[in-house]
Amino acid sequence: MELRKLSINQVAEAVCHGEITARRLIEETLKNCSVLNEGLNIFACISGIDALEQADAVDRKVANGTSLPLAGVPVAVKDDICYGVLPTGLGSAAFKEFPSPYTATALERLMNAGAIIIGKTNLDDMSLGSTTASSPDGPTANPWDVERTAGSAGAAAVVTGICMLAIDSDSGGALRQGASHCGVIGLRPTMGRISRYGLTTYSSSFGQVGITAISGENIIHALEIVSGFDKRDASTAICKERLGGKSDFTKVKGIKIGYPAAIFDYLDSSQRDILDQAREEFATKGFEIVELELALLPEALQAYYVIALAEASSNHSRFDGIRFGTAEDAGDLEELYRKTRSRTFGREARRRSIFGTLLLSKGNYDFYYRQALKIWKLVRQEFANTLAKCDLLMLPAVKTLPRLVTEETDFLQAWEDDLFCAPVSLSGLPSICLPAGQAGKLPVGLQLVGRPFSEELLALVGDQVIREIKLFPHGIS
Amino acid sequence: MEKAIKMIKIEITPKEREELDRELNKFLQWLEPMLAVDTTETEQVLISHGAVNVFREDLARQGDLAELQEAAPDFTGGFYLVPPIIE
Question: What pTM value is reported for the model?
């Protein structure tokens, strides 16, 4: 069964109607997984026996007449989201065997609907990055060019057809940039749309659970299941705008797309040409392009990092070997903390913790941190004002094409890669990354940002772009 | 920097310290455009998701003491009994 050519709906119906068992589907998936993982390094760990047991449970429920909307659908989960059966490694050698204390709400809901967790995907050390380059297991290779990084291992799992869904985290753009680098669709939903219970985020204000898939239709089916109020996460919204559930994934007409031309000047020419062509295709297919401005993008990125670093230094203070991680032998508590944290924290984690602590210290707090909180307000206002003039906002997704696996980057270069995604994280708005074309063999993505809780519109437009505008081949062979 | 390193409780070698000092300078220079934005009339964001606490009116209400006492695992002689915490 070639999963990339089917919708989640089709797969679930096939399992519910007995055309294929969930067990058979997962056996095939695990076989693909072991073959492809060898060269691409997608998974930190694979469920194996547990996945087959989950599949057997789904088959029993289906045989008893239970209808499961995600019956047999294989799902990859980023290894900073807790899944009770497998460790939550957080991309860190220190947490490789850390037993997950519980299963995240998003995963519980998927599994209750019949989805099957295949494994935990690779990520940067402590989820601090958008490339997987700092993972102790090595980077995940891009299926389009294995000399380059995938950005998101979940996106690699989807584009190779191993899984139909990837549940990823996104603070400054890891999910969206990975979707761009791998040529799939990645949704970062509105803050509060999906429960973050079970997400180990370094940034409490920006860390969000998102979904990656091969189509907008698949994303919406998954979002219907995972989204909604969760009493275990006080930041979830009681959303009045429910998803339609029976959306017509055909033409969407009369949509105004805001285009901040100056932003696209930050791109290199290969990406610029592709996104210019994408914009023209949108116009010829009936979308109205509205030229407007987004003035605060670089300042928004800087504010993002001030706030995120401050939160990282606070959130990471719990990694002291007492509750989280393994304590080193020591003579006293102070020595235990120092030895354990020195072993646990890699270069990026040390940098972020130290800078974050400095930004929150006396004198710096008002000058840097408070200023960043005010910029945050201005960015939110700017996005709201912009989206009053259009239905969706078009932005690039990535500043550069996927980097070479061996490429050494300066830390600021890496942070500047988040130029187009981090400001959207500040806005709290939903955004989707779609494949818009190829530069040579490398996919180039386009980001669309919507008003609060407009995920369905984003996915519908995304599907229309892929099906009718046909800017990009569907999946990788 | 010394104080921050002490607070995060991580051992930093002298070479790492030199590199961090250089990186910090670069980072603070990088932040200058953000600092130049006039925010004198702007409020700060304090909560990312826009939710607010739901408060009830701060008015005394008549409670039912008997109901509370009955709900307690062990209520004897006017006292709520709890497991010992000191051996």
Answer: 0.90
